[in-house]
Amino acid sequence: MAQPVIHPMVKFQHQIRSLVESKIVRPTDSIWKIALVFGNEWSYWKQELTDFGFSMQDPVSELLSVEAWDEE
What we know:
Number of helices: 4
Pfam families: DUF4327 (PF14217)
InterPro entries: DUF4327
Structural class: mainly alpha
Strand content: under 5%
Protein name: DUF4327 domain-containing protein
Number of strands: 0
Oligomer: single chain
Order of helices and strands: HHHH
Radius of gyration: 12 Å
Organism: Chroococcidiopsis cubana SAG 39.79
Distance between the termini: 27 Å
Largest sheet: none
């Protein structure tokens, strides 16, 4: 039985949740603060977030509150 493919944004969301739990970022911090953690990968993730309608000023908590990453 094949395992379902996990959307890349779900994995990203788990990484961000881990950063919050580790107190590296706070839920009230702006999304742009996580750029410091992702370094060279940030341009990719920034584009993905923008494509899903996020701005870099949105709080991290909005990213964590997404329940499904459906692309339509």
